[in-house]
Each structure stands twice: as C-alpha cells, then as structure tokens.
Amino acid sequence: MAAADSPRGGAGGPESVDIPTALASLAVRLREAEHFMSRDGLHERRSELEKAASEPGLWDDADHAREVTTELGRVNEDIEQLDGMAEKLSDAETLNQLIEEEADDSLRPEVEELLRDLGRRLDVLELRSLFAGPYDHGDAVGEIHAGAGGTDAQDWAEMMLRMYTRWAERRGFEMEVEEATPGQEAGLLSATFIVRGRYAFGLLAAERGVHRLVRISPFDAQHRRQTSFASFDVVPFLEDVSGEVDIDEKDLRIDTYRSSGAGGQHVNKTDSAVRLTHLPTGIVVSCQNQRSQHQNKAKAMQVLGAKLAERQRAEHQATLDQLSGDRTDNAWGNQIRSYVMAPYQLVKDLRTNEETGNVEAVLDGDLDAFIEAELRRGAEKRRSHD
Fold first, then answer.
1. DSSP one-letter code for 154
2. CATH number for 15
3. So what's the pLDDT on residue 318?
4. By residue range, what is the domain housing residue 93?
5. pLDDT for 333-346, tens place per residue?
6. CB proximity list for 181: less than 8 A, separation 6 or greater
C-alpha cells in the first residue's frame, strides 16, 4: 500500500481525508517515533559527539575520527528529521485552524499535501523500529549464487545482481561488485558485492534465501517454460573486524588469476584478481574489481573478515538464523519468493504473501514492499516469542 493511500498516513484521496482525525493520528505516530528514536538521548549523544569531534588530537586516530564524525552525521540527520516532521505537523495544524475559523477550503489541498508528505516520512522512519540486530544499521556484503536450472539459473543470477544494483541506486546507496564469476554460456555462477548505506544490512537481511524464476527460456530452441533458482545471502560489512576476528595468514591459501567477466568497468585484465581460501573453515572469498592485486587482496581480506565475524557471532548464539539465517538447498521447495513471467505475471513472497503483478518493476529494483513485509513479519515473530 502506497504511503499516499495509507489510512495510517491520513492521506487518502482529496474527498476522503478527515483532516482533524488525520492530524491526531499523525501526532500519535510522531510521538511514538520520538520515543523509539529517543529524542532526548539523541540530543545528549550529539553533545558528547560534538565535544569528541572538537578534540585537537581527534585525527591522530583516523579510524576513531571517522567513527565519531559518521555517528555525529547520523545523529544530526535523525534530529533534523524529527524536527522537520514536528514543524510540518505544526504547519498543518495552523492551516487547519484557519480553515475552521475562516471557513476557507482553499487551504485544504495544501494541508492534505502536508499530511501526505508527513505520512510518507513517518512510514520510512517507522521501519527503523523493526530492526533488532546490532549490525542492522550498517553496510552489507551480498552474495548471489546460481542454483538448479543450468544456463537459465546463471542468467537469473545475473538478473538478480542487476535487481539489487537498481534497488541500491533507488535508495541512494553505494554498491561495489567485488567479484563476478561468469557462467559457462551466459549469466553468472556467482557474484559478491558490498552495499554501503544506512541500514543496508538490516534491509537486505530480509532478502536472504532462495529466489525462483519461472519464464519462457531464452536459451531453449523450443521456447519451453523453465524454472530456475538462485540464492542470495548477506552478512554485515565492517571496515575493521580486527576486534572480532584474528586472521592468521598461515591459515590462508592465496591464488591469483586474471580478472574477467562482469566485474565492472575498472576491472584490470592482468593477473590481479585474488582468491582467498580460509583453510580452517573452507570459506572462499574472491575480489577482482580493484585496480591492483594488492587492493584486491585487501578488499578480499575485509570480506573474509566480515564472513568470519558473522560465523563467530552465530556460534555464540542459541540459533544460527539471528544473523546467519537458515541455509537451504538452492532448488525446489526452498524458495522464499517466486518470480513468474509465464504463463502469467506475478511476484509472490511465500513468507509474507506479499505479491504484485508488476514483475518488471520488481526486477528493476522495486523491492521495498517485499522487504518491509518481511521486516514486519520478523518483528511480529519476535514479539510473539517475547
């Protein structure tokens, strides 16, 4: 349901809006947002961070300085969002008073637009209340692997990479493809990428699982319908995981090879690509998108560190799927979502029953409705357990 049509936002069609009721509803939602975001706590934290940022020796430790300035920017952003919404609500209340006192409906469209905008802003903000993990606010390492379905599955893996690329662009996130292994005939066998943006991991965690595509195969001379599978996995990405894991280079097998395939426009065609195999765990990480072998190795070490840290966190929890999620076969019976392009058009999430007939929009990155539905399902599941 679009925010503009949402009863929660008090912003339906022009003839259906009960402005006083909508104002009261939005005021309640804003107070709830200020509570779960801890408005007073944000102001206290901003004072602490501003003091830390003004210390003369701040940049003596560049990593610490970046942490301070990044958090300060996020705290300021949160405060500005809350202040901006409070101001919009006050403006709408003032205009509504004029409408009632002067019986002047000419201001009504302006009030309704304020209500719609405020409802949309609150919709976005309220998603934050659905995040529960300690790393949900940060960056993410995503992986796509072709599953059952042969060449169609490899093509589907490449389509999924484009889908998440477009989704990241829509949200203003940065995305770096670190490794892409071409398929035998078309598409990709696998791809690894980093998504940088606020709540990238928390959002993408809702996409973890097996994705099923049904379509008329472009690789079948008889134009038969084909079902293919590809999996998506994600772990938190931290610039420095040295505090969580210690990687001994003696435990690594390091292979170099020539970069190739869909690695991006800056792929170096020399033997600069690096593949790391962590022998104790069997985890394999590749990177080919940087300009030199040294840079590729450094980035691969970061991704390996993220995977090992995630594995370590999972081992210390009662259940693996808090961060790791359930690992299932990349084939029939395990999909979280089906994308049907023939004989009809439908994308349906089997966990939440969220669905749409606009398959092309979803493949072009319009995933937010599916992500939000899964986040709400997860939050409800946690509440029922509590």
1. H
2. 1.20.58.410
3. 45
4. 3-130
5. 679 999 999 999 99
6. 188, 189, 190, 191, 261, 286
Across the chain, mean pLDDT equals 87
Q: What is the mean pLDDT of residues 250-255?
A: 92
Sheet holding 335-340, edge to edge: 174-182, 188-196, 139-146, 225-237, 209-216, 335-340, 346-349, 355-356
Distances (CA, A) of 245 to 5, 18, 45, 116, 242: 47, 56, 29, 47, 5
Q: Quote the longest CA-to-CA distance of the chain.
A: 80
- Residue 280: asked if its preceding bond is cis (omega within 30°), the reply is no
- In the chain, % helix, strand, coil (3-state, to 5) comes to 50, 20, 30
CA-CA distance, 211 to 152, in Å (whole number)?
Answer: 13
Burial class (CB in 10 A: 0-12, 13-18, 19+), 83: exposed
Q: Which pTM was predicted? A: 0.78
Are residues 191 and 108 part of one domain? Answer: no
Instruction: Between 36 and 159, name the one with better pLDDT.
Output: 159
**Overall domain count for the chain:** 2
Whether residues 45 and 13 fall in one domain: yes
Dist CA 337 CA 332 (whole Å)? 12
CA distance 31 to 120: 16
Report whether 386 contacts 188 (CB < 8 A).
no
Q: How far is CA 238 from the centre of its chain?
A: 15
- Reported as a single tens digit per residue, the pLDDT across 101-123 is 888 888 999 999 999 999 999 98
